[in-house]
Known about the structure:
With about 625 residues, the chain is an alpha/beta fold. It folds into 4 domains: about 5-150, DNA polymerase beta, N-terminal domain-like (DNA polymerase, domain 1, Orthogonal Bundle); about 155-245, Beta Polymerase, domain 2, CATH 3.30.460.10; about 250-310 and about 320-365, Beta Polymerase, domain 3 (2-Layer Sandwich); about 375-610, Metal-dependent hydrolases (TIM Barrel), CATH 3.20.20. It contains 26 helices and 17 strands. The strands form 5 sheets. Strands 2-4-7-6-5 form a 5-stranded mixed β-sheet, with helices on both faces. Helix 1 packs antiparallel against helix 2. The chain is globular, with a radius of gyration of 27 Å.
Amino acid sequence: MTKNEIADTLTEIATLLELKGENPFKVRAYQAGARTLESIEEDQLVRLIAEHQLKTIKGIGDALAQKIAELHTTGRLEFLEQLKGSVEPGLLTMLEVPGLGSKKIRALHTKLGVKTLAELAAACTDGRVATLDGFGEKSQQKILEGIRNREAYGLRHLWWDAETVAEPILAGLRALPQVARAESAGSLRRRLETVGDLDFLVAAHEIAPVMDWFCSRPGVREVTARGETKASVRFEGGLQADLRIVPAEQFVFALHHFTGSKDHNVQMRQRALARGLSMSEWGLVPAAGEGTAKEKAAQIAERGMRNTESKTGAGESDSAARQSAVRNPQSAIQTEAELFSALGLKYIPPELREGLGEIEAAEVGELPRLVEPGDLRGAFHNHTTASDGRNTLAEMVAAAEALGWEYLGIADHSKSSFQANGLDESRLAAQTAEIHALNASGKFTTHIFTGSECDILPDGRLDFDDATLATLDYVVASVHNAFAQEEDVMTARIIRALEHPRVTMLGHLTGRLLLRREGYRVNVGKIIDAAIANHVVIELNANPQRLDLDWRHWRRAAERGLQCAINPDAHDTAGLAYVRAGLNVARKGWLTREAVLNTRPLAEVTAWLRDRR
């Protein structure tokens, strides 16, 4: 295990102990141990374990040293497994409700006897939670709302989590000797921010071995359906995955059909009809035949939509439907690009297939050259152990260098974010001096920019004075509290911050946390107007739980001149990879390389930041 993985485990132990009502000193020992691990560098931890010197670190005693060494060496801890088994499973589920920590859950359990979410919801509904010390009517309503949201959110999964499951499955399918082609489809391939389930499409010359392999994947909790050419499985985390096997000559048509949104597919079928063709997952065929051309096309289209929307049972045979489709005259079509071309269109990337004008743009050759992974040269919004990050400055820069980045911006929290160990003026000055020294040392090829994620206070003032902000290369202004303000108040608050001459970019505009928390009420259009007027960049926060600003706003905003920065909001070295999720959203928002600040080379960004100061 890495130091951050071990720190996560120690934090989990502390949470479980708190749920059980263990000695608070014992709980704090594990919490302190986790923080200590995050503050040291990986190679130092390896050396201390090898030399049996962990106990020389303040706050790490014999028991903790033994557990850390065991986790680092074996990747597991018997003590943790036993501890998990001693805690009511329902109490762990309650941790998924926003605003409920282990202390509050312990109080609810001991004073009201609740052991499950259903029992907690009932206790909120009949008013018992509001009577407890430390709760009240407002807390009770928030808990009930959190439970309802969790039920709704439970139907979907973050794109990042779904992709983590899908990636090895797709690679495994492609490696099977019976498989000629394999792709993921659906909302995962369109790079939507959340995914309902996984769809895999395969062209194979032998079906049974592929079905056997798919249904026996590690982590499969149950095989929910298995038929002639379809199978559905559900994984331990609740994510469902569907497999469809089609003949090679149908693969391209099925891939397009099961990738596009409903609106995109309807518009494509209408376009085909206008050219005397019927388009479905089975092929692109002449509309004439059985009945009128219109009737045949409608039959094929209806069958295709039923398959897409209702996910017909995997046991249903596809052979009858295949036989009813006339022979495909477009047998030369082997790629999606050729399929689009057959309908007089330029290739439409999967991210754009939402039925939002992409077909019209493809017809006249006005689709943009979307920003690509290789275009990014760095990022600005990143954290270190100086605030609530989990890797040191040097570790973060080394990780950026390994990615080939030309620059890395450090924007730790400001002092009002006390919950995130925000920096005051003296600590920020010390960090700035450390960054200047590291740049001067030539230790890394990656240049480090000095910055701050500076809180926007409830009245719109910034958390640091002008003199402090003037010492930095850039400033990311963000809202971290008073989320319940009225829309006009929140909007005015953010606009006041954007009008400050030292603000370079706005962080996570709406404050949303996908599948956990809705954004605060704010007039996004007015914020975009203010950003453009004041030459402020709005970040596309690439953290998979945020992806904020939402992709639906970016196309129009960029056309009006708004600049974007794709920022990972990384709190550890692994978090730098979140730019991949941000690129998904940027591409869905029709963003080009020119619209994204951090596609520019170091010299250009340095000059741009200097001119903004």
